[in-house]
Every structure is written in structure tokens, then in C-alpha cells.
Amino acid sequence: MMAPMDSVWTRTQPPPRDKVTRAQIVRAAVDLLDDEGLAGLTMRKLGGKLSVAATTLYWHVQTKDDLLEYAVDAVYAEIDVPGPELAGWRGAATLLAHSMRSTIIRHPWLPAVINQRISVGPNAMALSSRGMAIFSAAGFTGRDPEKTLAALISYVLGSAGSEVAWRTMVKASGKSAPEWTDEALAQALPAAEAFPDVRDVLEQRGRRNPYTMLDETFTFGLEALLDGFAARLPGTWT
Amino acid sequence: MMAPMDSVWTRTQPPPRDKVTRAQIVRAAVDLLDDEGLAGLTMRKLGGKLSVAATTLYWHVQTKDDLLEYAVDAVYAEIDVPGPELAGWRGAATLLAHSMRSTIIRHPWLPAVINQRISVGPNAMALSSRGMAIFSAAGFTGRDPEKTLAALISYVLGSAGSEVAWRTMVKASGKSAPEWTDEALAQALPAAEAFPDVRDVLEQRGRRNPYTMLDETFTFGLEALLDGFAARLPGTWT
DNA sequence: GAGACACTCTAACACTGTACGACTTACCCG
DNA sequence: CGGGTAAGTCGTACAGTGTTAGAGTGTCTC
To answer: What does pTM read for this prediction?
Structure first.
């Protein structure tokens, strides 16, 4: 394991040339965002986490917005896009959708950041490429694979975005989901009285397990969308 | 027009009791957000726009986040939800979707804000209520109207969110859409070389009219989703 | 050995959201 | 009519933000 006469003094190439690398910064930023939310990411706090002055970060990253862009692309790498040969196009699309949803739930700051600047990082492009491959293999031609993938991603993003907004509020309150719902209904939502149907919806979310209800809602829309895709496949009688 | 001896000095009742009302503040905030984006909204700038000290705003609004919540709900009022009796459930849903999309495009900051806190203002609830009525009238029962509406809104939100991200970047560059696309491809996206299919998609967006392409993509997904809903209507043979 | 380079840090600037307390009115009650 | 209470506005101030400029450190190359 150790060469003879190897010691700190004889070693010629101390491996860590820099105190931090951009990859480390990005990873730490994602951690911080996960833990403390979008407003919790501060250059000084991030520097502290890496035992480095805040301004040091600016050597590796031009601006905080750029850092966010890096963070977004890093997270994109966590979404896996199965090839269509494994589960068929519908299975592959389903897996992609669920993987994307859980990635967003793991990184709740994602939707708010994504909707400000478009994502053109390498991981985002790889996702697009592999995602389009699913629908090309399914038989879509021309611009259809692009449109189909865009629709799928839009749905997942919107759905997960709402879900994340809900989860964030519950988490920030420190209460359990049913508790939160009850309190919110009782105290803070007198407006709901005017809309009994909406009130019922919110109430149910307090009684039954809210998370399985979110799952059901997500799957419902996903299946509907995929049915719509299937009906658009060339070779389908209408 | 003027009473005898009316002057600044004799006048006893200056009609405007308050210098600003909350409604005015919210409206000005929306305007500022539309013009300068989320980062452009500043309490001091907003105060200046209303000829009022920044701290005065805090009498009418507890916090900047609260102000954003008011702004979101104010914008929700612009989305119109037709009753199902007018255009049938599918027509009504289509109109709702398009109205929501154009509202978001008019207020590009909306998606980023919406995904941080859930919306429970009166206009948001009215939208939910009337939206669910569409699908109830269509024949959906139980929790299905809620799920269907959630899916529709999720899709619109996600789709418009991506669109807005794109539009914002193009607008911020000050260039025309094709110009922007060309430059972005040429200079800033060497990563695209590794994904020729993605590159083609981006390139086409530069050649053809990008806005009609966005329309097409939006409509494609919307129709697919509505087809999926139709297939789920009770009384449909599968 | 010397100079260039990569990297880090301290100090500072302009600006942010917001708390506090003082000030000016308009209104109500005796 | 007179005084007190509340509503509303403002100046000041504070802690914290992203970011710049310049000085400093060490390492690599000739």
C-alpha cells in the first residue's frame, strides 16, 4: 500500500492542489438547498460549509445564478431514463415520470429554479435525448417525439411542483400532515367556507393519508396522458 | 367647480384618508413583477412607485412573502373558467387551459412563486371550485373531478413554466428569438454536439417561428391529456 | 533563481427585508 | 369644545445579502 520511505515530506505531489473544486461546491450547494431551501443558500454559508471564504467560491463560479444552474444540472443526473427496449415505451415513460417526480421531491427547490432559466446543461440534454428515444422507438415520427416528451415532462414538473409546495408548507410548520390540514382549515381558511366542494377536498386530505392521495392523483393524470399518447401513435385507428 | 374661498388652507376634509390601500399595493407589485421580474420587486422600489416610504407598506402587508401571496391570488382572478354548460366539458377545459397559459405568460414570475407556497386565496379557491364543476358536469364522480382538474392544471403549469423560462431568457438577451437560438447554439452550447437529436430540435426552433411551435407543443399535450380524460369518463367502453 | 500563474483571503460597497419609535393627523367620547 | 385613542406614515438603523478589487500566498515553469 505504501511505498518505502513515503511520508508527507518525501511525497512530491500533494494531491489536493485546490482547497475546493467546482464539483465540491455544487454538491455542497445542493445539500444546502435540500436542507434549508432556496432562501437558505447563501454564499457565506456555503463557504462556511466548505471551510472557505465566501469570495473564494467566485473563483470557481461566476455568479450565484450560475451556481444554481450547475446545481440544477447536477440534480438532472439523478433522473434515470430507461431505454425503450426494457419495458416498452409505456413502461419506460412511466419509469421516467416516477423517477423525475421522486427526484423533485428530494430536491424541492428545483421547480422554482427551473422555471426561471431554461436548462441546457449536459445532463438536461442527455435526459432530452434519451427521453425522445423512448418515443421514437414507440413509433412517433417527425416532431412528435419532442412534443410527447415535452408534454410528459411538463405534467410531471407541474404535478411535482404543486406537491412540493404542499410538502414544504407542512414541513415548515413542524406538524404532521393531518394536524396541519386541520389547523389550516380551522383557523386560516375562512375563505374555504364559500366553496364547500373545495373544502371537502382539503378535508379529505386531512383524514386519509395525504401522501397516498398525492400518489393516486399523480398516477391518475399520468395514465390519462399516456393513454392520450397511445391514441396518437401512428397505426392506431381512431 | 370650486367653492368660494376654497384653497388648500381652508379645505377641511382631504378626501384620501390613506395614502395607499392594500389593493393598490398589490396591483403595483404585480406591475413591477411583470416589468422587472421576481428579482426586480423591491420594497423600496415599490414604495417609490406609490410615492410612499418603503416601511409604510408594512402597515398594509405583514411581509414581502405575504405580498407575493396576495399578488398570486390577484393574478388568479384573471384566469376565466367557463361553466360546462357553454362549451361542453371538453370545450370548457380547453378554454380554461388556454386562459391559464396566457395568464402565466402575461405574468412570467408566477410559476416560480407558485411552486414555493400553495395557493389558498379566494381566487385560487374559486378557480378550483369552478374547475371541478366542469368535470363533475362531465360525469366524473367521487374524487375524480379533483384528480382530473389537478392533472389539467399541472400540465398547464408545467408547460407554461418551461415556455416562460424560454421567453424570459430570450427577452433578457434583447435579441429576436431566431437570433438568440443561433447564438446560443453556436457559442454557448458545445454540449449539444454530443446529442445531435436535441441539437436538431433546438435548431428547428430557430428556423421556424418558435412561438407557433410552442403553441403546437402545448396543444398537442393538452389534447392528449383530454383524450385520456375522455377515456376515463364513466360509461365509456374500454 | 525569477517570474508567471492559480488560487485564496480581507475589506469594502451598494443594496436587501424589516423592527422600532417618533410624528402627524382623523375620529370618538365626555 | 377638548382631550385621548387609534390609524397611518415616516426616518433611522441593523443585520445580512451578492459581488468587486487588491493584496497575499503558494506552486509550477523556465
So the answer is: 0.91
